[in-house]
Structure formats: C-alpha cells, structure tokens
Amino acid sequence: MDTGAEVTQLGRLHYWNNTEKTNAFEAPCNMINGSAGELFHPRRQRDYVEFYSTDICRSLRVPYKEEMSMYGLDGYRFQADEMMFAAPETNPDNWCYCNGECPPAGLLNETLCRFGVPAFVSFPHMLYADPAVLDQTVGQEPNETLHNFNIDLEPVGRHFPNIGYQSEVFSFAEVGYNHTLSK
C-alpha cells in the first residue's frame, strides 16, 4: 500500500495476499485496484472512488453522486448504481466477471471467490436486479435509499462522515425431482 510519498497515490493497494490479481475472475477483472477501503488520498476529485473488497474478490469503482454536508463537514457522496453489477449487455466492462456464464443483472457470481461454493452477491433486497430474478424470490422490496452503497468523503482531509455498505450473499441450489433419498 502506498504510504503517501506521492500524495495522489496515498492508500493505493498494490498487492493482496502477495499477488496483484485474484483467481476469482478473468483479466482484467482480476486486478487489484484502488485502496483497501479505509484510506483515500486527499484532494479528491468528483469522479469516483475505487477500492478492493476482499469479501467479494473484486475492485469496486463507485461514481460521484453529489455534494453533501454532515456533522459540519462538506464533502462528496459517491454512490453505487445499477452499472456495478449490470449484465455485460448493459455494462460491457462487466464481461470478465461472468466466470463462464453471466448471471442476470444485479448479481455477481462469487463461486470462485467462495472456493467453488455456488454463491452470488447483490445489493440488499436485490436492488438493481433483473425483474425476472425478483419474481423468483419472496420478500424482496428494493429501495434505493435504504439498500444502496455510498461513501461520503471530505475531499481535503479524507474524513468519512458516513459510509453505508451492505450486500447479500445467496447460495445457488438446484432442485432435483428424480432423486431417491432412501430405499
């Protein structure tokens, strides 16, 4: 991790577990980019923040949303949108997160990150998920205000007046109708 000799690189993560990339996704999606999520360089621009999430084995680029003020600190709000876990038809940059077969919009295939266990990640209540996926579940009530991910940063000193991060992990199970449990 950069320590600040070059201030615009402060907090930039270069390696995780002695490697520059993860085995969970194809290149270039396997690269470890951004910070570790706890430290961002000062003099932040209004473009995006990027960090590597060890929980989902990928870097996340969170776009600028708006100016904000909290606890007397003025800052910038960076907020995830539907493009983060969008299908490659909507966001072509996401093609390399498919791991063979692309999941529906709003889901990230985490199988290789979870050591082969079939798992998918989404925002809570499957915010931004394909409506066909929502129709197959019960109790999902996506609400952008309640279920989105955001980071509020004071741009000069890098203070975090507010961070809101939530996600859900789902296991995938196929139901077999022709299996005999006992004889």
From TrEMBL:
It is found in: Membrane. Keywords: Glycoprotein, Membrane, Transmembrane, Transmembrane helix. GO terms for molecular function: scavenger receptor activity. Pfam families: CD36. Belongs to the CD36 family. This is Protein peste. One of its GO terms (cellular component) is membrane. It comes from the Eukaryota.
